[in-house]
Each structure stands twice: as C-alpha cells, then as structure tokens.
Design goal:
Layout (H helix, E strand, L loop, with lengths): L1 H11 L3 H12 L6 H17 L6 H24 L2 H21 L7 H18 L3 H7 L5 H25 L5 H9 L1 H11 L9 H24 L1
C-alpha cells in the first residue's frame, strides 16, 4: 500500500496521505500521523528535486505562512481528541476535503487562497497526516510539473514544521521511528517507479480516481470509529 501510494503521489503530485492515512487508521491507528509525516519527507524531497524548475515560489511562500499557524491548531486537536474522536475527524476531513477538491470550480488562486490552503493543511496534516486536497484545489489548473513540484515543496517544509511541533509535544516514539524505517524500502521503490510515468499522468482522470479512493477510505474509517 505504501509502494502504491508513493507511486501515485510521485506521478500525480498528491495521494500518499489520502491513501495511507485511512488504511493505517483501520490497521494500526498509532501510525497516524507521525509515521505518515516521516515517510513523506524523502518522497517529497525527491519530487521537489526532480521537478524543481517548475516550482511556483510565490504560492509556496504564502502556503508556508498559513501552514505554520495551522500546525499549532492541529497539535491541539491531536492532544485532546480520543481515538474515536480522531477517527471521526480523519474520516470526515478526508471526505470533506476530497469532495471540495472534486467540486471546486475553475478559478485563479491568489495569496488569500494560498494562505488558506496552507492554514487548513497545517491543521489536518498535523492532526491526521492528510493535507493534499487543499493544495490540489489551489493548483488544480496548474501544469503537472508545477503542481507536483510546488505541492511537494510545500509538503516538505510543512512536514518538517509538523514533526518538530509534534516532537516538542512528546508525541513521537521509538516504535514510530521503527515503523518508518520498515516502510522506507517500498516508499523509495514507489517513488522511483513514478519517474517512468509522471510525465504521462497529468490529466484529470488520475486526480479523480485518487480523490474517489479517499472518499471510500474516509467512509470506512468513519464506520470503524462509529462502531468503536
């Protein structure tokens, strides 16, 4: 699952957290969000370096500003929520953000849009590991290279911020680091395989499929949380 998610994100610019977080929440909730954040560091570093020529620096700056402030709200959520409540939040936020990205009309993003995308991502990614839909919404009309490179850079910076804040809150354990190391090989393999197809997967079909999967996964997490 990690291999496939890394392949999809490396190819389309999004999808890793949307795929892994709901599945991790069903199998081993303790992996969320720390292991997801750690795994995305090398993945997004690779995509950023691969297509660095296409980075949209103006959008990245405003997103990072919003992301910084949203991170602390996400930390508050993860420290006060129960396992059931966090499961409900993961399921609902996954579905809501995916539907928002699917239904959003065409528009030209400005600094307000970029800042809001960063703010929402800071909240959801720090608390659940999911942060792709707001970025996909902001860059839905950008070229494939611009979307992949800019989103990867924003993820990379934001994940460092989230990990530092979570570490300061004492929410990172040795077991989480061991789980990250165990999953590095499939992650790196999936990222490497994406280099052969990323230039062919810029159309809307892949984006719709990823978001549709996110909705189904979010529903599954909600069902489990409601039954617990």
């Amino acid at each position: 699952m990690v291999l496939i998610a890394a392949f999809i994100q490396g190819s389309t610019g999004m999808g890793f957290a949307l795929i892994t977080v709901p599945v991790f929440s069903l199998i081993e909730p303790g992996l969320v969000p720390v292991v997801v954040l750690f795994l995305m560091l090398p993945l997004n570093a690779y995509v950023t370096a691969r297509e660095r020529h296409a980075i949209h620096w103006r959008g990245a700056r405003w997103i990072t500003l919003g992301r910084f402030f949203g991170t602390f709200a996400g930390l508050w959520i993860i420290t006060v929520a129960s396992t059931r409540s966090l499961g409900l939040f993961i399921g609902l936020s996954t579905i809501a953000l995916a539907l928002l990205a699917l239904a959003a009309p065409t528009f030209t993003p400005g600094r307000t849009t970029f800042s809001l995308a960063g703010l929402v991502t800071g909240v959801t990614e720090t608390s659940t590991g999911i942060g792709g839909p707001p970025y996909a919404l902001a860059y839905q009309n950008a070229s494939g290279p611009t979307l992949r490179a800019t989103v990867a850079l924003c993820f990379l910076i934001g994940e460092v911020i989230s990990i530092v804040v979570l570490a300061m809150g004492g929410l990172i354990s040795l077991e989480m680091l061991k789980a990250t190391l165990m999953l590095l090989v499939p992650l790196l393999l999936g990222a490497w395989l994406s280099r052969f197809v990323h230039h062919r997967l810029d159309g809307p079909i892949v984006r719709i499929l990823v978001l549709a999967f996110a909705i189904v996964s979010g529903i599954a997490v909600l069902i489990r949380a409601l039954g617990s």
